Automatic annotation (TrEMBL):
UniProt xrefs under SMART domains: ANK (SM00248)
ANK repeat ranges per the UniProt record: 42-74, 76-106
InterPro entries: Ankyrin_rpt (IPR002110), Ankyrin_rpt-contain_sf (IPR036770)
UniProt-recorded name of the protein: Uncharacterized protein
Tagged with keyword Nucleus: no
Keyword hit for Lyase: no
Protein keywords: ANK repeat
Organism of this sequence: Lygus hesperus
């Protein structure tokens, strides 16, 4: 039996608020893959939320659960690396994305 993790808001809120333990708990349930916040771009929406708020450990959790480091949202340069570079000078996040295989010349 799959655990009911509630709505997409529960996971999105945990990511936005930097709640690492709650995010980890919600990502441990098998049915999180069915949530709209995950399905849209295979985790790209959640990953962008973590990046925008500087939540490196949560970004790492999302990437290790399968969020696509090179997926784009909208225009061709809107991948996580370009998004992070344009939004923050957080070198830890930029290194994380590069170490996870982000392409630098998309």
């Amino acid at each position: 039996m799959l655990h009911n993790i509630g709505s997409t808001c529960e996971l999105l809120t945990a990511v936005r608020n930097g709640k690492e333990d709650k995010t980890k708990e919600l990502l441990s349930y098998e049915n999180f893959y069915n949530l709209p916040s995950w399905n849209q771009g295979q985790g790209i929406v959640l990953l962008r939320e973590a990046l925008a708020r500087g939540h490196c450990e949560i970004a790492k959790l999302l990437l290790h659960k399968g969020a696509r480091v090179n997926n784009k949202l909208g225009n061709p340069t809107n991948d996580p690396l370009h998004f992070a570079v344009g939004l923050t000078d957080n070198l830890e996040i930029i290194r994380l994305l590069l170490n996870e295989g982000a392409k630098i010349n998309c």
